[in-house]
Amino acid sequence: MHAALTLGPIAYHWPAERKRDFYARIADEAPLETVYLGEVICSKRAPFFERDMPDIIERLERAGKTVVLSSLAEVMLPRERQATRALCEMEGAEIEINNAAGLHARAGAPHRIGPFLNAYNEATIAWLAQNGATHVCLPHELPRASLAHAAKAAGEIAIETEFQVFGRAPLAVSARCYHARAHGRHKDNCQFVCEDDPDGMPLLTADGTPFLRVNGIQTQSESYICLVREMAELVAMGIRHLRLMPQSVDMVAVAETFRACLDGKIDSEEALAQLSETCAQTRFSNGFFHRVAGHRMVAGSMPVS
Amino acid sequence: MTLAELVCPAGTPAALRTAVDAGADTVYCGFRNATNARNFPGLNFSTDELATAVAYAHAKGSKVLLALNTYPPAGQVDLWREAADTGARIGVDAFIVADMGVARYIATKYPEIRLHLSVQAAASSPEAIRYYCESFGVKRVVLPRILTIPEIRRIAQEIPCEIETFIFGNHGLMVEGRCSLTNYVTGLSTNMDGVCSPAADVEYRREGDGAVSSCLSGYVIDRFGPDEMAGYPTICKGRYQAPHRPEGYYAFEEPVSLNLARLLPELIDAGVHAFKIEGRQRSKSYVRNVVSAFRNAVDDIRAGREANIAGLLQLTEGGRETQGAFETKKWR
Fold first, then answer.
1. Does ipTM exceed 0.95?
2. Range of B205's domain?
3. Residue B125 DSSP class
4. Please, is A70 exposed, middle or buried when counting C-beta atoms within 10 Å of its C-beta (0-12, 13-18, 19+)?
5. CATH code for residues A4-168+223-285
6. pLDDT band at residue A303, thresholds of 50, 70 and 90?
7. What total of structural domains would you count in chain B?
8. Tens of pLDDT, residues A160-181
9. Are B187 and A104 in contact (CB < 8 Å)?
10. Residues of B (25-64) whose Cβ lies below 8 Å from A
11. CB distance A121–B213 less than 8 Å?
């Protein structure tokens, strides 16, 4: 079965120029089939990128990639409601919805379900499918047995499934901006301090252990999820879309390694070694998949049973 | 003016009777398993206990809400369906749900029983709330603790259902239903297992300098001096170091609890139907004190009298309290 690599939306506040360069290189060089674009975390950041979106979309599509526009995870303020409505009422565009406000605006027209929407089980997936969903990104904390069950049930009603296999885990969101708080500010006068931390602001425990990353209102894991060893099993379950989250590393190299492993050109141990080199500053984790603490890296993957 | 229904926690059958006797209009509780978000050891109800509790509450004119407000992982949905079937058979007055699959099951099979949307569903806009109302016939939304009173007032004008807000108790910082911090650290999930910073994974470690580290599964969540009282290691209440804060700081929130005693009249005026007191994990005496104090306050407000706010403020005496986002958006 063919498996596609996808690139999730950039979670961080990268400067516009960095985003332009990043997507230009993704378009030209990365073996990715789908690219998700848009500001998912903080509505204050969105205007910085909007002007460049049409050019970036065109460039990615010319390179043969499917472009999907992702909606905000948290929708509360008037500008967030407006942005969600405008995006989800767009006709012709492929969109991924991350909040029930977006489902309301979409009113049953076709769409994808994003990882923040909490499609944990077959009953929820069936409900969403009846109301226009064609594709579901499953929550990052689902363990192996539930992933298999969800993918099978989705497959039976012709719903595509997707799962994050690389990048920091999106552990929590809040109404409060923790980046602003760290600098003695609040959300309304943040002065975009989050731009200083393109891979998130590290939080260490009192004994100096790297623990979490702050990204505006979002809290992420210190470790990068890395399911390169589990990937074949995910594909065997029927999960045909494997999501890489943009981090401040060579994402073309990351995509190439995952692709080579999917294509059987290198084995998963070699792939893991390559990824460890590409991401030398960061440790990996796969605990959620193995139903142990998410931060852990468990050796090996059991065969499909 | 709305009814200002007082919705009180019942972690055990004894706490339920206490809350009812202290004047709760409504109590909420859950089964002793993963189907509710306070799946803690020693808490919650068996089927028989719930049946007895519902009979007790109904005889005294109180309502019982059953929390089925976690997210069933794929392959285990039956546990939630059976819990709903049992609740319906016993005659609970409403279900509190978060998962769309669970909501749909109840809306289809038991359309005569009220559905309340849990705070775990994180519906914080009129559109999201309307989605649940139109899809599943939700009659009441429990609002996330992130909105100011003017924002609540605007939402009330734009939705077709009742509003319940938290007024007292633990003050979680993350959007409920969207937090996997506990699973990252311990391997147990808040959304799927109903667990948050579980006690079995807690360790208080005495350091060489006399300090006490408050740990969760080996991660130091906070550290206290020899004379300080060591706090519980809830991840979002911990003290961490950041590049600009090498001294360590409360990265998310100080360990404070929510107390909206002063704001009750404003909340009623904004269109809030029901006030929720957090604390199913709390003792009987705590439940008695808090419920009777708020009972008196709400009765005073309803009768147009000045409420005894001082008494309510004493409830958190010694502990630190906040009005959180309700008072000012600068909290964000």
1. yes
2. 196-250
3. S
4. buried
5. 3.20.20.70
6. very low
7. 2
8. 999 999 999 999 999 899 999 9
9. no
10. none
11. no
